[in-house]
Amino acid sequence: MHRTISLLRVAAASMVAAVALALTGCKPSFSFNGTAIDYNIYHTIAVSEFPIRAALVYPPLQQTFENELLDYISRNTRLRTVESGSDLQLEGEITGYQLTPQAVGEDAYATRTRLTIQVKVKYTDFKSDGKDIDQTFSAYRDFDASQMLTDVQDQLCQEISKELVELIFNATLGDW
Q1: DSSP tag of 79
Q2: CA atoms within 13 A of residue 146's CA, in its CB half-sphere
Q3: Gap between the Cα atoms of 141 and 115, Å rounded
Q4: Quick check: helix, strand or coil at residue 133?
Q5: What angle in degrees, to the nearest 10, is found between the helix axes of 60-76 and 149-171?
Q6: How many CB atoms sit inside 10 A of residue 168's CB?
């Protein structure tokens, strides 16, 4: 009986809090993907091409990265992608595409190789000061050195691009 009365009090207090929020005009914003975008202010985003400016060039990487970025924004926001006159802008370039040996075997040859990709991003918020970002993001994947890069390159670039896009999204639109 006493427990039932306590539960009723908690429920009543919750109802009062909900009504108070509604009456005061407070509008809490919740999101399941980490974004805190106010869609009353932000409607559009321009995403420029990300050309490859790295010493080592793998041409399909640009399209892979750009597609992943646009798809991620489309899936996780209600922003409309436009060419110009946007509320937000993402631009940049792929500045690094490097292979480095990681583990050395008994025969002094590498047993693991690391593919690292770096992307320099400039994020501009035209509606709010102080939210702009100019930052380089980096991600990598290791693979067995006995494998040819040409055999694993597409898969590695896809995985690395996904990770880079998540990092970029969280630093910009994710508003962490």
Answers
A1: P
A2: 2
A3: 6
A4: strand
A5: 40
A6: 23
Helix (H, G, I), strand (E, B) or coil at 105: coil
Amino acid symbol at 89: Q
Residues paired with 117 in a beta bridge: 97, 139
Q: Among candidates 97, 101, 113, 115, which has minimal Cα distance to 57?
A: 97
| Measured CA distances, 108 to 92, 105, 112 (Å) | 39, 5, 12
What Rg, from alpha-carbon coordinates, does the chain have?
Answer: 23
Q: Look at residue 1 and tell me whether its pLDDT is greater than 60.
A: no
Token digits for 168?
Answer: 């970029």
Cα–Cα distance measured from residue 96 to residue 106, given in angstroms and rounded to the nearest whole number: 30
Location of structure tokens 């969280």? 170
Confidence grade of residue 52 (pLDDT, cut at 50, 70, 90): very high
Residue that the structure tokens 């992608």 belong to = 81
Q: What pTM was estimated for this model as a whole?
A: 0.78
**pLDDT tens profile 78-96:** 999 999 999 999 999 999 9
